[in-house]
Amino acid sequence: MDALAGLIAELPDGMVLTDPDILASYRQDRAADPAAGTPLAVVRPRRTEDVQQVLRWAAAHRIAVVPRGMGTGLSGGATALDGGIVLSTEKMRDISVDPVTRTAVVQPGLLNAEVKKAVAEYGLWYPPDPSSFEICSIGGNVATNAGGLCCVKYGVTTDYVLGLQVVLADGTAVRLGGPRLKDAAGLPLTKLFVGSEGTLGVVTEVTVKLLPAQHRGATVVSTFDSVSAACDAVVTITGKIRPSMLEFMDSVAINAVEDKLKMGLDRTAAAMLVASSDDRGAAGTEDVEFMAAVFTEHGATEVFSTSDPDEGEAFVAARRFAIPAVEAKGSLLLEDVGVPLPALAELVSGVEKIAADRDVVISVIAHAGDGNTHPLIVFDPADAAMEQRAQQAFGEIMDLAVGLGGTITGEHGVGRLKRPWLAGQLGPEVMELNRRIKAALDPDGILNPGAGF
Amino acid sequence: MDALAGLIAELPDGMVLTDPDILASYRQDRAADPAAGTPLAVVRPRRTEDVQQVLRWAAAHRIAVVPRGMGTGLSGGATALDGGIVLSTEKMRDISVDPVTRTAVVQPGLLNAEVKKAVAEYGLWYPPDPSSFEICSIGGNVATNAGGLCCVKYGVTTDYVLGLQVVLADGTAVRLGGPRLKDAAGLPLTKLFVGSEGTLGVVTEVTVKLLPAQHRGATVVSTFDSVSAACDAVVTITGKIRPSMLEFMDSVAINAVEDKLKMGLDRTAAAMLVASSDDRGAAGTEDVEFMAAVFTEHGATEVFSTSDPDEGEAFVAARRFAIPAVEAKGSLLLEDVGVPLPALAELVSGVEKIAADRDVVISVIAHAGDGNTHPLIVFDPADAAMEQRAQQAFGEIMDLAVGLGGTITGEHGVGRLKRPWLAGQLGPEVMELNRRIKAALDPDGILNPGAGF
Asked: Keywords, A to Z (chains A, B) (predicted)?
């Protein structure tokens, strides 16, 4: 505790929090890792220099630092450690938009939605759109290389990060990349930090690339009485055109959303697809007509297209609402497995089998156009046996995805909860490569130990 | 030479070349590095296993290995070293296209143009298009994170690499990433290797993401009597829309091209812009009309638009022909500096001043929409004093770009020729980060020593 007194004295008043109730509220992120510890303190820096002081202090005392954005992570990447520090970037909230270079310089604590809003004032668009965009921070998005619904056409966070300011494990602050659209000077270190889950450094500033405002396009919604028919339709579409969104909900999700929103969704459907095109003018309409025709060819039970953006948005909102709607049925273990597109149907049917075998409800929603699915495993936390079966299913789904040539995480990161399954995907040599990079950048292992890999 | 006999014995007949004429032909890439050495041997593996054997052998004997694609690099990234091995991937030429996942698995020796052609048979498109696309290999493109003309809308090589097979310095072969559109498992190592210039491993297989065939759109060509007016027009356009190409040629380039192609280009113009939109239908035409209007507003002396793709392609071909056309005037030192877009005019006028001060001809062509320029410094190799002035100008242009917040290389890589200027851009801490990663992956420093950083 002498060490901590030193940190409190070094930093501005109120920046280091030690109140037990506050510490308790920073123990877990949304993954609610049951193994979470209680941190020594929560530090909420305002400037890069503050972060440097925290890391110099942590390095000197060999104290673990868990960087944290808004705590919306779903893999336990911000789980607190006993005796460690939680470094929350929530107070670092500056943004400056440069409409001329179509870039913005953003501090990590700003919400994704706030970035979108700030740049929209200049007629610009920051594409990455995790479902949690209204509550998650850019810093967390960079740490996990967050995705979302638009990725099928517009890519993920790393595709929009041109530069970073990062504080390294020893407190050194470095600038990587910058507002240059192409830069091949030196190793691509900016890219190395995006998705590194706070294990290599603390990001204190992000330079993002922006696009002109997205055209609000046309949308088609379709229901199927067979999951595999819906998945086949997805593969037919992505082989031919570039939809701006291509989302999947299974029967459990459809019913959970209908329970809450009462939109008139077909409760008897096995699957629903929501697809959009944001191409301008006739091209967007053509794309939607093409997708509607593909759905019909694949035996869709209902196909509804609209070029009214608000009407289209209602279906997107239904898809976005699927996680909270399913969550109303119990506690969730939230998966993020991805597969090469042709294996999508096999993944979904494999998950159905796991649900039956383990006698738990699992709802599959998916960024189908990316092959990235979110099986939501529902359990009653008061039923220990069911919780254990849910945990078994959680692991089995990751094993299933890896067996299909897939990944244990498409966009949420490994965090702490998925770590036991990572070696099964990467193999021992690639795990060793991860460790070598980590050792080179954080030799004492103070940055988010136990997370990421 | 005993060591070499061992390698020759281990590998299939004819894979290791030691004929002096052949060795001489592999000493340099297109950068014609005057400091090039003579290698002990040239090895042309056919399989990943061959590459593993070469690297195991090189590691055991601490012999430097210079990986080489088709030798079209412009920074000396494949300069041979005395007593080292040149590992040419030119014989590794397999490709398999998967139209369902819209991906292809490509060996490094295939030409960029061959990849484009192979995937076009499936109605698909591999976007990155360095000007050398007909003679450069995918392996070299991955090593340098190559760009091209389409990058202003479609990004660079790293944006299309989903997975790699890489042989590490000790001969271990690893698979990174794969045919998954989103993958957040472990550190983003795939991204680390793209642009690492053969310093961290030898890429033996690349999984690339493909797009549906590009729509052949509309093009607008415009001349200006002022470079800064042309640059201002560029910035106005990129702030508002996403052209699929936005290229710049200065007066020297216009005249050099006109000397050769006799297209009727305006020899009195100070600058020419060639811009395209590949958006379908009315949207593409609108974009081109918008760009034409912006050119007019910025005082263009001539504006010509066409929605005939062949007519448009003739102007693109003129732009592509600029380097060979200028090369006809003497030997070239070819720059690749980039700046944030608003600094483009200042960069070009600064280059003009350097040309005047050093009394050499410098022609500027640019991927203007990216802020990535290629000043071509022309000199007579028989005139030692002029060559020295050209070398001075070469360094001064990089210093100028860095001073404007830019980069010494946008898409060609640092190689050996630009290395003295890298620390000026990155600073000592980032240089140290580069070296730490290198030491972690290639502790004996056998992979392309002296290149990259």
From this structure: FAD, Flavoprotein, Oxidoreductase
